[in-house]
Amino acid sequence: MPGAEHEAWRAPMRSRTLDLPPGTEAADAVARDRCAIGGVVAPAPESLDEALAAVADRYGARFAARLRRFAAIPEGTFVWTREPDGRYRLGRLTGPWRYEPEHEALDLPHARPARWLADRFGEQDVPPSVAETFGRGGRNLQRIRDPDAGPASAALWRAAAGD
Questions:
Q1: Residue 42 — very low, low, confident or very high, per pLDDT cuts 50/70/90?
Q2: Which of 22, 23, 41, 127 could crosslink 84 through cysteines, CB 3.0-4.6 Å?
Q3: Whole-angstrom Cα distance, residue 37 to residue 125?
Q4: Which domains are seen in the chain, by residue range?
């Protein structure tokens, strides 16, 4: 996973169409060892190319570009999310994109396998740029641009995961 420790992403895992309490979808995704974004399409796509075409048709080119970025994030990259109580969870992507029709009800069918730490972090414990990125709000996946976010996430990962 070369280079993966140099990046961190904000993955709010929030539905774009449902009005659920913040963090509900994130808690579900973490419990199922996944990182996910929305964009329900029918029929369920069997490939990323099919998914890109379907979301472009239904949601527009910007959404398709977001899905392409999500699918292209290297395995091993750190992802941060926030749960209903406001605490942060740190994960790492462990596999490729897939479409999961069983998660359409929460509007998060585009998924990547992820390993999430059992530890949860308060705002004072996360890299400042992580808290700042979530503080701006929004429901979209975003790369955390601070060059220290990846190495700081890696240090937290090693301390908590023991690897």
A1: very high
A2: 23
A3: 25
A4: 4-161 (3.10.590)
